[in-house]
Every structure is written in structure tokens, then in C-alpha cells.
Amino acid sequence: MDVINLSEQNSVLNHYLREIRDVNIQKDPLRFRRNIERIGEFMAIEVSKKLHYEPTEVQTPLGVAPVNVISDQLVLATILRAGMPLHHGFLNVFDRAENAFLSAYRRLNAAGELEIVAEYMAAPAIDGKTLIVADPMLATGMSMEVGYQALLKHGHPSHAHLCCAIATPQAIEAVRKELNDSPDVTLWCAAVDPILNEKKYIVPGLGDAGDLCYGVKIHLSERP
Ligand code: URA
Fold first, then answer.
1. CB atoms within 10 A of CB 222
2. How many Cβ atoms are within 10 Å of 89's Cβ, its own excluded?
3. How far apart are CA 2 and CA 54, in angstroms?
4. Distance between CA atoms of residues 182 and 16, nearest Å
5. What is the pLDDT of residues 80-106, one digit of tens each?
6. Distance 51 CA to ligand 1 centre (A)
7. With DSSP H G I counted as helix, E B as strand and the rest as coil, what are the percentages for the chain, rounded to 5?
8. φ, ψ (nearest 5 deg) of residue 128
9. Which atom from ligand 1 is nearest to the alpha carbon of 206?
10. CA–CA distance from 84 to each of 31, 78, 114 (Å)?
11. Residue of the nearest CA to atom 2 in ligand 1?
12. For the residues 151-160, what does the mean pLDDT come to?
């Protein structure tokens, strides 16, 4: 599994990242969602450089021009709800892609440990296609792993690009292990942050991406 951390190279991506982290700027949900979407757009262009292309010709009003176009069949997948703006960033770039949506929630198992359960899934056939999974915060890697395994029920992609805004080293290692260090997977992130706090939030991170996009939800411990 290749890991590509896009902030290892300076680019405008740093500005979008700075704004989603900034405790004051992130309070504007429209701006927060748009910045996550802009990260998706930037990342999609980077991913596009790794895809396959085939030569075609296009008729202009004055002649015929050659152009190489993407030959991969793309499926964009995301995990509700925090993944939606990142997904939309990808969809703005790959506007003809098919789409897959999954819902996953956290619950405590019989041993009192946190687990993630995938529930609703609406996805096309994935066999032989190029799968892009957008999940903005790769904290433990659990939701990405559960989501990815659920998607495999619809077929095996020829290559998977797992895309997040912020990842932790422990999540990257967990995903690598879960996927048996598969050579057909690339993990993309805009930054790697060092630690998780006791509530499994990334530090320094940005807080709760879902809440910042869509408002505060009732948390696991507060559910009736
Ligand atoms: N999900 C978030 O929204 N933030 C984190 O820091 C970790 C998981």
C-alpha cells in the first residue's frame, strides 16, 4: 500500500487545511464544507495523475485534436455523514463517476469496546473498477476498514484510492495491516497528525468534522 501525504510538498492545499483547522474560521459551516470540498478537488486532480488513459480525438469547429482521456471506470464512495463534502469535491472533478454511499455508526460491543457497524449501503458493481473512498478523518482507521470491506461485497476493484484529509500514523498502519499490505491500494492524505486523544479525536486535528459540516449530533454516550 502506497501512502501519499500531499502536504509533504508545499501547495495551496496548505491554505485549505489551515482554514479547516483554525478554531475561528472553522465556525463558518459553509466555508468549512467548501474547504473540505476544495481538498477533495485538489486530491482528485492528484489521483487523476495515477489513472489510466487512452487516446481519443475530438472534433473542434476547425479540425480534429488528439486528447488522452481516462479509461478507468471510477466509483466514488463515502461514509455518511462527514464524508459528503470530500466526496463532492471528488465528484466535481470526476463528474461522470458512479457513486456509492454507506452509513456506519459507532457502538459499544459486549466487552464495552467501541466498534463500527456498517448499515445502509447503496453502491454499483465495483468489480474491475477504480474505487475512490472519501473519509475525511482517518483517526483509528476503523470506519475506513469497515466501509472498504462492505464495499467489497459489490466486487473487487482493480485499484482502490483511500482518501482522507487528516490521518494518524496508527490508522495508516491499521489500514495497511487490514488490507494485508495490498499493492492495489493507495492511501492519500492532506496531513498526518501524531496522536489521538482518549475520545479517539485526532490531535491537533480539527475537532469533529461531521459536526463542523452539519451541526452537533447526539453522541453515543448521550443516546436515549
Ligand atoms: N472524526 C472526526 O471528525 N474527528 C476526529 O478527530 C476523529 C474522527
1. 7
2. 26
3. 24
4. 30
5. 999 999 999 999 999 999 999 999 877
6. 29
7. 35, 35, 35
8. 75, 0
9. 6
10. 14, 7, 23
11. 208
12. 95
